[in-house]
Amino acid sequence: MKKKEKAKGESVNIQKGKAEFLMGIDKIEQLQTWLNEHHFMSGVAFVGRSNVGKSSLINSLFGKSTARVSKTPGRTRQINIFSFPVEDRETKTVKQYYLFDVPGYGHADVSKEMSRNWGDLLDMFFRMCSEKILLLNIQDARHPLQDSDTAFHDYIKAFDLETYLMFNKIDKLKTQSERSRLKNITPEIYKSFKWVKQIHFISAEKGDGLKEVEAALVTFLSRIPD
Ligand SMILES: Nc1nc2c(ncn2[C@@H]2O[C@H](COP(=O)(O)OP(=O)(O)OP(=O)(O)O)[C@@H](O)[C@H]2O)c(=O)[nH]1
Ligand SMILES: [Mg+2]
Fold first, then answer.
1. Which atom of ligand 1 is nearest to the CA of 138?
2. What ranges make up the beta strands (E) of the chain?
3. Mutation probe of ligand 1 site: the residue of 64, 70, 82, 139 with most atoms within 8 A of C-beta
4. Residue 10 falls inside a structural domain
5. Which of 82, 103, 135, 157 is buried most deeply by CB count within 10 Å?
6. For strand 133-140 and strand 163-168, is the pairing parallel, antiparallel, or unpaired?
7. Ligand 1 site: residues with CB under 6 angstroms?
8. Is 105 within the bounds of a domain?
9. Ligand nearest to the CA of 58
10. pTM for this predicted structure
């Protein structure tokens, strides 16, 4: 039985290069309307500090040039919504899900007004998105648990969303001791952040750990009842 389940899990995958950009939303009212109209949506949201590699990870998982990768931090100023297909090669079915590229938090270089708007947007988003949304929190492997990361976790714990933590840019960890220092903090994270169900060590650029992330993502999605 176990073997059969595993085999099925392996036959499900994201269809590469088929994610479709639907819209970028930066106004609260527009977001509320969209969320109301898509009440039964399921999918995945990518959230993290500016410049940690959210858009790069999206591109690696869903196909090149799905999201725009920035040269300057804080470029993603709106919630970008995409749809993407997941195929089950065994049953030959394809299902559509939503993907949300959420503006980075903790960017110091923005005006008060803009950062208030971000806060309001995120509030609306997290209040209205359901347990059908998986939250992927991306952090920089070289700088884990920055103040804004812990502040973000403090903030989202009330929403009770299943969350997976991605430590990205592990290709930049050059020494064994840097790597083991990062691995050593994981028990503490599971203990302090109960909503974090998985931790992955990845490189969106070099590809490390991405197969496991894709498998975890499609497993989460295939568990959601229709
Ligand atoms: N070395 C390395 N660089 C990466 C990796 N992932 C992303 N980068 C680089 O980090 C920079 C920021 O990447 P983005 O994907 O735009 O980051 P983001 O989180 O979407 O940034 P904002 O949209 O501004 O919040 C780019 O220069 C990427 O090329 C990685 O795994 N390794
Ligand atoms: Mg981005």
1. 19
2. 12-14, 20-25, 43-48, 79-88, 93-101, 133-140, 163-168, 196-201
3. 70
4. yes
5. 103
6. parallel
7. 48, 50-56, 69-70, 73-76, 104, 168-169, 171-172, 203-205
8. no
9. 1
10. 0.91
* Mean pLDDT (the chain, rounded): 88
Which of 51, 58, 76, 201, when mutated, tests ligand 1's pocket best, judged by the most ligand atoms within 8 Å of its CB?
51
Give the position of tokens 């497993």: 219
Question: Residue 113: inside a domain, yes or no?
Answer: no
Tokens of 19: 């994610």
Tell me, yes or no, whether 117 lies in a domain. Answer: no
Query: Between the CA of residue 77 and those of 69, 88, 118, 183, what are the distances in Å?
Result: 13, 34, 8, 32
**CATH number of the domain encompassing residue 76:** 3.40.50.300
pLDDT tens across the length of the chain (226 residues)? 444 445 455 789 999 999 999 999 989 999 999 999 987 789 999 999 988 999 899 999 999 777 766 656 555 578 999 999 999 999 999 999 999 998 888 765 556 666 677 788 888 998 888 789 999 999 999 999 999 999 999 989 988 899 999 999 999 999 999 999 999 999 999 999 999 999 999 999 999 999 999 999 999 999 988 7
